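Section 3.1: Structural characterization of target chains.
Under the original work plan, the team committed to producing a structural model for every single-chain target entering the pipeline before any wet-lab resources were allocated. The record below documents one such target. The sequence was received from the expression subgroup and is listed exactly as submitted; it comprises 113 residues.
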Amino acid sequence: MTTAITPESRTQALAAMSDEAGLDVLVIGGGITGAGIALDATRGLRTGVIEAQDWASGTSSRSSKLVHGGLRYLQMLDFSLVHEALTERDLLIKEIAPHLVKPVPFLYPVIKH
């Protein structure tokens, strides 16, 4: 259910998430990252999500949804970030979401200036 955000609806939503049990995780933003975090967190944790507009209405709704391996970080020589991206991509492909993540071959043209 989607409703307009008003001061009253915001107060009601926060009250619903703030009962005596409280929340274990509060995710701010329902883009691809926030939705993924919320999905993982609901596996045993009491989870709330706050989204200002619409699910995936921001950058992630207009992106290619590629799970990259950090190739762009090589140019910056940020090897630890490349390693982190490759590790996360490998987990997605093999463990977390093999039904959603598939390898896609790319051809990168190399042009010398």
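DSSP finds four helices and two strands in the chain.
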